[in-house]
Structure formats: C-alpha cells, structure tokens
Design a protein that fits this description.
There is one protein chain. The protein is mostly helical. It has two domains: 66 residues, Winged helix-like DNA-binding domain superfamily/Winged helix DNA-binding domain (Arc Repressor Mutant, subunit A), CATH 1.10.10.10; 164 residues, Four Helix Bundle (Hemerythrin (Met), subunit A). It contains eleven helices and two strands, in the order αααββαααααααα. The chain has a two-stranded antiparallel ribbon with strand order 1-2. The N and C termini lie far apart (92 Å).
Length: 271
C-alpha cells in the first residue's frame, strides 16, 4: 500500500458498513505500519489525505482527531505543522484501559482470576530469556520485604515491591501481549481502592511462604526449567489470592463492626 493508494473498498454483503471515519483511521494505521513510519515522522498533508481517501475535510479531520485521542499521532499547527507519529507509552496505554474499566466495579477476585491463569505462563515464557542480572534484580527486590517494616511508609513500599517482583519477570517474556497484560494487572492492584486499603493496614503480613515461592522461582529460572517456574507461580498466585481475599474479608468485618458500634454517650452539660 503506497501513501496514495485508495482506501479498501466498502465491506461486502453480510458485513455492516463501517463509519467512513473508522475506515480512514484503519487505513492510516496500515499506512504507518507498512511504510515503517516511526515517532516523529509526518503523515501526508491534510489535502493529500482528502484526495487519497476521497473524503471531506471534516471526515479526515475527525479521523486524525481519533488517532490523536488514541495517542498514535499529534497534530501541530502553524509553520511546519501537520500530523506526526507519536510513540504510545505503556503507561498511557494502561491509563486508557484503566479509564475504560473505571466504572466496571473491578474486584480483587477479578484480578486474581486472571493472574492465576497468566502469571504461570509469564514465568515459563521468561525463563529461557532471563539473565543473571535479571535474577539478581529479583533477589534484590525480595530483600525489600523479607523483614518487618519499620513504619507505615516502609510497609507501603514493601507491598509495592511485591508487585514489582512480577513486573521484572514480565520484562523477560518473549510474548509482548502476555507481558503487557500481566503488568497491567499488577498496576490495577496498585490502583484498586480496596487493595490500597488493605496495603495500608498496620497488621503484620505473613510473607514467608510467598518469599519461599519467589526464591524457588528464581532457582527454577536459573536452571532454565519453564515447567517448574510455571508450577511455582501457579501455587504462588493461588496462595496470594487466598491471602488478599482473607485480608479483604477481615477489613470488611472491621468496617461493619465499627459501623455497628454505638456512638459514645455525650456527657450532659451542667449549669
């Protein structure tokens, strides 16, 4: 497909006709990929896109605006302006997904249902590729939370580091979709309100079993044993889910108890 090839013909019988703007958005995306355009490259000028797609100025501008909202391009005005390719950062992509899920009433159980399936596959896919430096990073992260926290700040940092451990594993996966999805689930746990409420609780957290699983994982990865790595992560995720749901239940019970407790009687004022 050249920069001046016409857009694909309309959908055939049996397929609903798509909105013209959406067709142009998809055509521009294909153009970007097929011509190897990268961040900083400019798309053809607006008048060229209008001629190429035989579309009105308003339709082309709507398509460019849609691409800009998606974070794929930026539109600059003035001399030297135009539509330029942007690099979609992982953080922005995750923010867009988080916004989509904002009103979906996500729960800890929802997230762990996914993690139990995906994290073992992630560990298996990372095992052939992780190097000694990566394994040392994992060992260093464990040292952040292998002891009781001194204060609330350290307690919070320890809980975040527990999730960061799995983020490092994801860096070595050869499956970018799997790695992104697992990192997104880890981010959701950092952002989910109920999870944050659990993380700030002052009660002691039993980490011995989880740390043992993580050290076993490091050993399996060092031996280049994907099957063992997957089995260890499956057990770890199952245990982590039970732990988090248990903490959630205790937090809910505490909240209900506080709600049910009678308010202290006020002393009667005397003259």
């Amino acid at each position: 497909m050249s920069l001046h090839d016409p857009i694909d013909p309309p959908a055939g019988a049996g397929r609903p006709r798509r909105k013209r703007t959406d067709e142009i958005v998809d055509a521009i995306k294909r153009m970007i990929v097929e011509h190897g355009l990268g961040p900083g490259d400019r798309l053809p000028q607006e008048r060229e896109l209008i001629a190429q797609f035989a579309a009105s100025k308003g339709t082309v501008r709507e398509a460019l605006k849609a691409l800009e909202v998606q974070g794929l391009i930026s539109v600059r005005t003035g001399p030297g302006g135009g539509a330029f390719i942007e690099r979609m950062s992982e953080g922005r992509a995750m923010s867009l997904l988080s916004n989509f899920l904002f009103a979906k009433n996500l729960s800890i159980a929802n997230i762990y249902e996914m993690r139990k399936v995906l994290e073992p596959q992630l560990a298996a896919s990372a095992t052939p590729h992780i190097d000694e430096a990566g394994l040392k990073r994992l060992e260093a992260i464990i040292r952040i939370y292998d002891h009781e926290p001194a204060d609330a700040t350290e307690r919070w940092n320890q809980r975040m580091a527990e999730l960061d451990f799995h983020g490092v594993v994801a860096e070595y996966s050869d499956n970018p979709i799997l790695a992104f999805t697992c990192r997104f689930l880890q981010r959701l746990l950092k952002e989910l309100t109920i999870a944050q409420d659990i993380y700030v609780q002052p009660e002691p957290v039993s980490r011995a079993s989880g740390i043992r699983h993580q050290r076993d994982l490091i050993a399996a990865m060092r031996k280049r044993d994907p099957a063992a790595a997957a089995a260890i992560l499956a057990a770890h995720m199952s245990e982590a889910e039970k732990h988090m749901l248990g903490l959630q239940a205790r937090l809910a019970d505490r909240f209900l108890s506080e709600e049910a407790a009678p308010a202290p009687a006020r002393k009667r004022r005397t003259a």
